[in-house]
Every structure is written in structure tokens, then in C-alpha cells.
Amino acid sequence: MKRIFLLVAVLFASQALTQAQSPTPDSRKRLVFPPGSSEPLPTPAPTAPGNPDSPAHQPSSAAEIIDAFFLALKADKVDAAYDALVKGTIIADRAADVTSLKERTKHALDSYGPIAGYEVVDEQLVGSVLFRRTCLSFNTDLPLRWRFYFYKSGGNWNLVDLRVDDGLVELFEDAARARR
User: Which of 87, 90, 106, 143 is paired with 73 by a 20 to 30 Å CA distance?
Assistant: First the structure.
């Protein structure tokens, strides 16, 4: 099992390195001088529609929410992790579902070991208002796949769904599809 984990880590590290070394034509800076102006206007970095690597598409609030969630789980504070994660979302209104998520997470941590950390393994933006971030938690015995779904409303990214499983085979299949 450790070999599989190492293989996943090497695969994603090499893919990230390849992407980081590939210059993009849209990464150039541009200055725009409006008619009659001697000073350029600040222009946002160019973005490709649906490109989650684009600065305009990075939901920083989603990253902060997920980071706080995993920090709480790492500290073995499952209830607090979920309370903060769903605060102010439609999920919070479904108390029975939140309780079930907490219990299943506690069971998973008992089965797969405590979380020592996590990493983002995939991000996908659908349109300009739906965002999925897939993370892999580093549990003692076996990693878990976490999929966080966010919806942008009123300028904020709000969690609308969360899925967690041990579907590691699917991670490899997703990576293979992405390479095609």
C-alpha cells in the first residue's frame, strides 16, 4: 500500500513540475493606456475560461476553509471541523446529515488512522460559479479522497457538498484521463 501512495505522490509531483515549467503565452504583463491618459490602467491577469490555475478563478476562501477543516481534523477535533466547515451553508440546515458526516468521519479515522496532513490533487472549475477541489488526506494506514464542492454566490465561495471515500483507484483513472 505504501508503494501505491509513493507512486501517487511521484505522479502528481512530476505533473506539477511539468506544468510549472511550461510557460503560457497568457502570462505576459500588459499595460493599457486609455485615450488621453499618461498612466496605464491596472489590468487583471489574463484568464482562460474554466482554467482553475488562473488567478481570477482561485477561490481563496475555499482554500482557507479546507485548510482550517484539515487542521481541525489533524487535531482530532472532528465536530469542530465540521461545525466550521458548514457554518453559514445550506448543509448546516441539515443537522442529521452533518451528524452523520461527523460519525462517518470518526469511523474512517478509527479505521484508516489519524490525519497527519493533506494535499490538493485536483481542482475543477465549471463555469464561473462552481468549483470542486479534491484533496488526499495522509492517514496513518490509508489515504482518503475528499471532494469539496463550492458555489460562488454574492462574491463568496460556499460549500454545497462534500464527499469522502477511499476511492484511490479512481484517482489513478482521473489522472490517466487528464493526460489524454
Answer: 90
In the chain the first and final C-alpha atoms are separated, in Å, by: 26
The answer to whether 175 touches 167, Cβ cutoff 8 Å, is: no
Which grid cell is 178?
Answer: 487528464
Collapsing DSSP to helix, strand or coil, 147 comes out as: strand
pTM for the predicted model, two decimal places: 0.65
Q: Indicate the pLDDT class of residue 155, thresholds 50, 70 and 90.
A: confident
Whether the CB-CB separation of 150 and 131 falls below 8 Å is answered with: yes
Q: What are the DSSP E strand ranges found in the chain?
A: 115-126, 130-139, 144-153, 156-165
Which of the given ranges, 29-33, 55-59, 64-68, 165-169, has the highest pLDDT on average?
64-68
Q: How far is Cα 140 from Cα 75, in angstroms, rounded to an integer?
A: 14
Q: What is the CA radius of gyration of the chain?
A: 19
Which one, of 175, 163, 162, 114, lies nearest residue 142 by Cα? Answer: 114
> How remote is the C-alpha of 156 from its chain's centroid?
15
Task: Extract the C-alpha cell encoding 166.
Answer: 477511499
For 64, list phi and psi in degrees, rounded to 5: -65, -40
* Residue ranges of domains in the chain, CATH in brackets: 1-6+61-180 (3.10.450.630)
